[in-house]
Amino acid sequence: QPVREVTDETTVTVRAIVKESGKPDINLAFKLRKNKKTNEWKAYDMVAEGISLLSTKQGEFESMLRKDGLDAVMDMMKQTINKPINLEAAKKV
Fold first, then answer.
1. 34 burial via Cβ count (<10 Å: 0-12, 13-18, 19+)
2. Is CATH 1.25.40 the right assignment for the domain spanning 1-49?
3. Hey, how many other C-beta atoms are within 10 angstroms of the C-beta on 52?
4. What is the CA radius of gyration of the chain?
5. Residue ranges per structural domain of the chain
6. Measured distance CA(87)–CA(93) in Å, rounded
7. 35 with 10: CB under 8 angstroms?
């Protein structure tokens, strides 16, 4: 999409296409929200080929919440937050 000013909006979608030689293009959309206090934009969702990361995670959490309870969901979230990001492992996925 063409670049445009976003002066009054508080949420926007930024679209991108990942191109890799010999592979099909991957369509991505990053959904961002503007913090009213700091005026910073922060991503809250990524949609890859029409599949929302936020919706997917919500579904996982709902299932875990019903099965294992809130404490288990909170523990899993804390463990995930504390893990370092491994870019080499991410490239293999």
1. middle
2. no
3. 15
4. 17
5. 1-49, 54-83
6. 10
7. no
Please report, in tens digits, the pLDDT of each residue of the chain (93 residues total).
666 777 788 999 999 999 999 999 999 999 999 998 998 999 999 999 999 999 998 888 898 999 999 999 999 889 888 888 776 665 555
User: Which helix or strand (DSSP H or E) is residue 44 part of?
Assistant: strand 41-48
pLDDT of residue 85: 74
Give the C-alpha separation, 91 to 7, whole Å. 36
pTM: 0.67
> Among residues 73, 75, 56, 51, which one has the least CA distance to residue 64?
73
| Size of the chain, expressed as the number of residues it contains | 93
